[in-house]
Amino acid sequence: MTANELIRRLECLERGNSRWKLATMALLLACVVMLLAGFDYPRPNLVKARSVEAQTFVLRDADGQTLYLLGIQCDVSAQVKAEFDIRSLNERLAALSKAAGPANS
C-alpha cells in the first residue's frame, strides 16, 4: 500500500467514525428527551381526582386569606315556619286539654 492509499483509507475511517459519533449523540439526546418528557414531576399541593364532592369550596391566597367562598344554600324558612306553627298548635292543644279536665270514662 502506498502512502496515498493509506491516507485515503484513514480519512474514510475517520468520516465513518464521525458519523457513528454523531448518530450515537443524536440517539442519546432522543432518549434523554423522551425520558424527561414522560417523567411526572411532583407538583406541590396538587391532588389528582376524577370527582370531588363537597358542600363548600374555599379559595385561599398564598397567605391563607379567604378570597372566595362557593357553596349551595337551601332556603329553610318555610320549614322553620311550619315547625313553629306545629309547636304553637301543640301548645294550644295542651292548653285546651288541660282546661277540659279529665276525660269521663
Termini separation comes to 141 Å
Strand residue percentage: 5-15%
Rg calc:
43 Å
Number of domains: 1
Q: Which stretches are poorly predicted, pLDDT < 50 over at least 5 residues? A: none
Q: What about the largest sheet?
A: 2 strands, antiparallel
- Give the strand tally: 2
Q: Classify the helix fraction into a percent range.
A: 55-70%
Order of SSEs: HEEH
Mean pLDDT: 85
Instruction: Return the structural class.
Output: mainly alpha
- Largest sheet, order of strands side by side? 1-2
DSSP summary: helix tally: 2
Defining key terms:
two-stranded antiparallel sheet; 2 strands; 105 residues; single chain
Could you give a quick summary of the protein structure above?
By secondary structure, the chain is mainly alpha-helical. The chain has two helices and two strands; from the N terminus they run H-E-E-H.
